[in-house]
Amino acid sequence: MDFINSIVLLTNFIFVPALTYGSQLALGAIGVTLIYGVLRFANFAYGDLMAFSTMLVILFTWYLQSKGISLGILPTAILAIPIGIIGTIFINLFFDKTVFEYYRNKKSSPVTFIVVSLGIMFVLNAIVRIIIGPNDINFMDGERFIIKANEFKKITGLDEGLAIKSTQFITLIITIITCSVLFYFLNKTKTGKSMRAYSNNEDLALLSGIDPSKIIFLTWVIVSILATIAGTLYGLDKSFKPFTYFNNLLPIFAATIVGGIGNPLGAFYGGFVIAFSEIGLTYAYKKFFVYILPEYLEPNSLVQYISTDYKFAISFAILVVVLLYKPNGIFKGKIL
Amino acid sequence: MYFSAKNLTGGYGGINIIEDCSFEVNQGEIVSILGPNGAGKSTAMKAMLGILNLKCGEVLLNGENISDFKTQERIKSGISFVPQTQNIFTELTVQENLEMGAFLIQEGINERIEKMFDLFPIIKEKRNQFAGELSGGQRQQVAIARALMTNPKVLMLDEPTAGVSPVIMDEIFQHILNIKKQNIAILMVEQNARQALEISDRGYILVTGKNAYEGNGDYLLNDEEIRKSFLGG
Known about the structure:
The structure holds two protein chains of two kinds. Chain A is globular and about 70 Å long. Chain A has a single domain (2-325), classed as ABC transporter involved in vitamin B12 uptake, BtuC (Orthogonal Bundle), CATH 1.10.3470. Chain A is built from 14 helices and two strands. In chain A, helix 1 (2-39) packs antiparallel against helix 9, helix 3 (77-105) packs antiparallel against helix 9 (212-237) and helix 12 crosses helix 14. By secondary structure, chain A is mostly helical. By secondary structure, chain B is α/β, with parallel strands linked by helices. The mean pLDDT of chain B is 90. The longest helix of chain B is centred in the C-terminal third of the chain and has 15 residues, at 166-180. Chain B contains ten helices and ten strands. Chain B has a six-stranded mixed sheet with strand order 6-7-8-3-9-10, with helices on both faces. Classes of the chains: A mainly alpha, B alpha/beta. The A-B interface holds A 190, 193-194, 196-197, 200-201, 203-211, 334-336 and B 71-72, 75-76, 80-81, 83, 86-92, 96, 99-101, 103-104, 130, 146-147, 150.
C-alpha cells in the first residue's frame, strides 16, 4: 500500500504537473525553433509575443463572458483562442513587413536580428502593460477539477490523493492535437515539405521554384497559432502575468536548444526534458521516502535538491551544459 | 539554336568576371564549358540562370528573350540547374527531394518520380532514406534527378563530377548521356575536361572570362595547343 501511495504522490506532484508544464514549453519551443529554421534568427520577443496573444484571448474572453456566453464546464478562453490567433498573425505580419523584412533584404547578420527582436520584445511588452496592466489575472472559468484529491482518496481508499485539474487535462489534449496536426503538416503535405526544404537549403529551394515569401508568411501563421495556444494554456493553468511570460523565455530557449535549434521534434521533447528536470529537482521528496523507506531510515530534512526559487537556474544550467557539450542538441536527426 | 546566351558581360561589384561570352546548345546535345580555375565558368552559368546581374548580353530560350526573367521564372519556362555543392536537401528523404524538384508541377508527380527511379535505379532502393546519408555518387544522382523533375528542356550542370571517384565519374557521365536521349539540351561546366569532351558534342573553353576556343568535342580533344594548355598533354 505504501508503495502505491508513493507512486500516487509522485504522479500528483511531479508527473502530472511536469507533463502539463512540458506541453506548454514544447508548444513554445516549437514556435521558436520554426522561426529559427525558416527566418534564421532567435526571436527574443517570443515570451512577450505569447503574453500579447494571451492578452487578446483574455480580452475576448471577458467580452464573451459579458455577453453571457460560456463553454459550460470548459473554460470560455478556448472559444477566444481563434480571435487571439488572428490578432497575433496580424501583429507578427505587421512586424515582419515593417521591421524584419528590411533586415532580411539587407541580409543582416543573426546578431542584428537578435537585437532587432529584443526591440520588438520591448514594444510588445509595453503594449501589453498599457492595455491590460502588469498584474496577475485569472481568467479560468468552468470546472476546475477532473478528479479532486478527496474524491480520489474516497474511491481508491488510499492515503494519498491525486488531483487532476481540468486545465492540465485540456493542456494535454490540445497539445496532442496541435502537435499531431503540425507534424502531419510538416512531414506529409507538399507545403509542409517545402517549408522543411526551405529551412534545409534556401538556395536549392529557390531553384526548385519554392516561393520564399509564401514560406515566411506561413511560418508566421504557424508561429502565431503555437504562441497563442501555448500562452493561453499556460495562463489558464497558472495565471496571466506579463512578467511571467517574459521569464518563460529562458526555459523555452533551453528546450529549443536541448532539442537542437531548428528541429521541431527535438523542441517538443526538449520541452518535457526541461519541465521534468525543473519540477523533479525542486520537489521535496521527504514524504516519498517516508512511504518507501523503513521507519529508522526516514529522512529528517525535506530532501529537496534545490529550492523552487532557483527553478530558472535549472533551465539555465541545462542550457549551458548542452551548449558546451552538445551544441547541436541531444537528439540526433533532421532539422525542421 | 534552342538555348543561347550572347555577349554576356558581368561580375560582382565593379569587376567583370565574364566578358563578351557566348554559348549555344541545341536539344539533344551536350555542350561543355571548360577552362582553368577562375575562368568564370560557374559565373557564366549563374548569369544564364539570372542569379547574376548582367551589364550586357541576352539569353534566348527557343527564340524567346528571357534576359529580364528572374531565376524562378526561368525555371518555370523550362531551365533546370544542378549546383556544384549543396545540390540536395540533406534533411529530406530521397523521395521528398524529388517531390520538391517537382514543386511547380501539379500533376503526374508520381509517374515522374517512377521515371527518375528507372533512370537512376540505385536511388530507388534509398527512397525513404535521408539524402544526406547517401554516398557522393548517389547524392549527385539525387541532385540530377531533382533537377529533371520539372521536365526541363534545358539542363545545366555545374561540375557534376566534382569530388567523386573515377568509377563514379564514368557512371555519372553515362547517366548524362542517357538524359541526352530524352531530347534535353545539356550544358555543363566541367573540371575533368578530357572525359567531359569525350561525351560532349561541342565544347567551349573559357580563359579569363572570355571565349578562347570552341568547337566539337573531337576538334578540341585533338588540337595540339588546346591539349597542351587545358587538357594536360
